[in-house]
Design a protein that fits this description.
mainly alpha; 2 domains; 6 helices
Length: 199
Amino acid sequence: MDTFLFWFDAFLRVLRITLFVAVVIIAVICVVDWLVRTRRINAFNPIARRMRSTIDPLMAPVERRVVRAGGLPASAPWWTLVFAVIGTIVVIWLLGFIRSQVGAISMSSRAGAGGMVVLLIRWTFSILTLALIVRVISSWFGMSPYSPWIRWSFQLTEWFMAPLRRVVPTIGVIDITPIVAYILLRVLEGALFAVLGMG
């Protein structure tokens, strides 16, 4: 397991550098494409012709979405850059998360059955907390609880949110039930570790 983690860490270092360089290149391309689209670079310039023939077809899906949302086609390069940056951050975060979980499994397995119980309890409460956060953020954006992207968070949290909602008062129009639920999850996790004599 240690050998795997060593090589995974090396892979992550190389990937971070590669993705950073890729985002810088994409940023330069997006700036040039924006200059071409806004006619700051002459349309008959060789650079403009090259951008229209090679880069614009690649940005066509982003441009269609921007136009459908009421935006200007000239903003497609900026949205492409935003997607590239967010995608890079998500990939690096996911791989870092996987690495931390593999490390946690390795450490827990060395601690025997007790270590695995601690790991399972932590995972359970982490998943419930993540579901709660997704549920709250989706409500800020008015997303449907029946959306396939969001439904899982409601299914995982409704069993403890519904009883809390009946007890916890609202403050004006603000529902503080998610805050109370988050605090109770943390307290319950700590109490469970205290009862089991783990931590």
